[in-house]
From TrEMBL, chains A, B:
GO terms for molecular function: O-phospho-L-serine:2-oxoglutarate aminotransferase activity; pyridoxal phosphate binding. This is phosphoserine transaminase. It catalyses: O-phospho-L-serine + 2-oxoglutarate = 3-phosphooxypyruvate + L-glutamate; 4-(phosphooxy)-L-threonine + 2-oxoglutarate = (R)-3-hydroxy-2-oxo-4-phosphooxybutanoate + L-glutamate. Belongs to the class-V pyridoxal-phosphate-dependent aminotransferase family. SerC subfamily. PANTHER family: PHOSPHOSERINE AMINOTRANSFERASE. The keyword Amino-acid biosynthesis applies. Its EC number is 2.6.1.52. Residues 7-393 form the Aminotransferase class V domain. GO terms for biological process: L-serine biosynthetic process. It comes from Polyporus arcularius HHB13444. It comes from the Eukaryota.
Amino acid sequence: MSTERVINFGAGPSALPLSVLEEAQKGLVNFDGTGIGIAEISHRSKEFQAFLDEFEQNIRTQLDVPPTHRILFTQGGGTGQFSAVVLNLLARHRLLHPTATPEETVLDYVVTGSWSKKAAEEARRLAAGHATVRTVVDSRVYSKDGKAYDNIPPHAEFAFSEDPALIYYCENETVDGVEFSHDPQSPASFPFHLLKRDTLVPLVADYSSSFMCRPIPRLADHAVIYAGAQKNIGPAGLTILIVRQDCIVDVDAAARLGATPVPLSLSYKILADSGSLYNTPAVLPIYMSGLVVRRMKENGGLPYYEEMNRRKAQKLYAIVHEGEQKGVFRRKVQQGSESWMNAVFEVLGEGAEKKFLEGAEKEGMKGLKGHRSVGGIRVSLYNAITEEEVDKLIAYMTRFLGES
Amino acid sequence: MSTERVINFGAGPSALPLSVLEEAQKGLVNFDGTGIGIAEISHRSKEFQAFLDEFEQNIRTQLDVPPTHRILFTQGGGTGQFSAVVLNLLARHRLLHPTATPEETVLDYVVTGSWSKKAAEEARRLAAGHATVRTVVDSRVYSKDGKAYDNIPPHAEFAFSEDPALIYYCENETVDGVEFSHDPQSPASFPFHLLKRDTLVPLVADYSSSFMCRPIPRLADHAVIYAGAQKNIGPAGLTILIVRQDCIVDVDAAARLGATPVPLSLSYKILADSGSLYNTPAVLPIYMSGLVVRRMKENGGLPYYEEMNRRKAQKLYAIVHEGEQKGVFRRKVQQGSESWMNAVFEVLGEGAEKKFLEGAEKEGMKGLKGHRSVGGIRVSLYNAITEEEVDKLIAYMTRFLGES
């Protein structure tokens, strides 16, 4: 049995900093000098509450979350939030428009990849008969082959509804490797300028695979931002929410007006009123994520990670581009829409992909196989992946190109 | 900062075996020789799948779960299941009775403590306008003071409905320290004999705080058994389900017939069809729970734990009883209904409870304070608490009695 750690380029669950793992090893047996391990301690103990408060504060400070927004912690991942955003924001809309018909109750979905597609499908399941789910834009229409999620469509194509109950987008599509640009001048940036700013727009963003890799543009304009922890900041089992206060509504009052009732575990109001401790939270995933975010702060916070992640992505795309020129690699995503976090490309030629993966594994690099639905290679470059590790992969890719 | 482990009698999250914590320390950095830590590895890797399969098998074998029942893993705790059982079993009922009126769609709740009361309240929220929630029995009626959950009512008081969509009970009330007896002759046992046995009864049991402390009587007669992991078998963040196949229904077909749509993360069908891997599961809590259940098997399985837990409870109640004779302690639960897992009692006299807790803490015993809603002392005797640890507490209680 090997005792060496490998480099894990997996898309999630994904690599965590070794220093955090080593600290968590101690906490497992004795958390903060309590004589009780972190997996065993009461979530109502003062020690855990202090840890949770620091965790929240470290997110708030680094992402610059204003007091208009609550930071909440829950379970169930992105899939849980596919449902929760629909139910909570339909309840909000019902309270604002008690007599709105299903035709007047519109959910706007921006579909740029597998995850936003799934989110829109869940909205259709839950809202059937109560609301109308609209696809604002479907990026496949603008793809090279008409079938792939390989781009962020141009701003002119975003046809938002007049007064929707929510506007949904996925900032980074983990499977397809497509991400909104954070440069507002880029045609691949999110078209915030098309949204009304004189009202509280119900803008929802899935930030699962890009949370805390760089600042969030126009964070304060969002109604809900959510992220599973298992990419940049921790183990699976924790979901982080940033919710604007007007979206924390009395879902029971809305139900009395005809909205679908919201299960306890999906209600933002229950979470907010209890400080995320209505029921036992995922203490251990919270602990490890809290250690990661504390370490991020010590390293200089988001500016440090943004710069590092920019360099990592630029270097990697440069070698993919070089391989493309030589006819060895092929990029799957259109220029300008490439994800910083999940770089996807193909290795051309019979058996070449297998050879690429085996060669990488032989050098201690794992997790490079693309998602089963799209194939190819996927390199995930989350915060815990160091520049040295990316350099090692690039050195391997360079040799691979030389031998191809 | 102390480095000594204390004895943790907390009600949950609660003590875990030190040998498991030490093994998990290694797995955090390198799981099963993969060179990747367990919190970082893909839930779709063959190594994790093998671990999950073994975990499931170890539960199946030890609890003797028949092939009529699936074992599923999810997130969200008991609170998530308060909602899920209602939605899934209402969908099942709708498919069986497509034209049933809300009056003909009945949910039967057995209320014997704080948790079953909460579960019934959630049913009322979700089923409003669609179904009728009935209290089969409320144990407060049979309590010493008419207000406390201090007993399991006599069998003659259980008034089940004719053809309910579900029958719900909580096997062990963690807060109140009330538990069904597993001796079928006892008046405090669950009155299975009152249920029809010629049909698939939709019997639902919350086993959160007594899961795998002893065998489950008439397991095969249950529709759904669920448990949060954070008592006997692992960290918070994992919920274990045992679901009879006829309760895994096409919730979308039911919704087309008028049932409330079921959010993805609460649908038993989604979980079952994906082998509990529809979305990323709580890998780390699954891992630690899997280690605990593997260790249980090595120790001799449930017969070993049942005997040990019986002895622990008997010893503890004996000293509480002795203290009651001396006017120092007072039991809160009626004879025959006392929980094996959570023993609750009062320490009588001004400031006596505080003195009791402080004295215990001085000797390295923590987590003995009763739930804030009922007060007093609560001693949780989950599987990871050893007989030696109980003996140490009893020695302290004996000295406390001598000094009182």
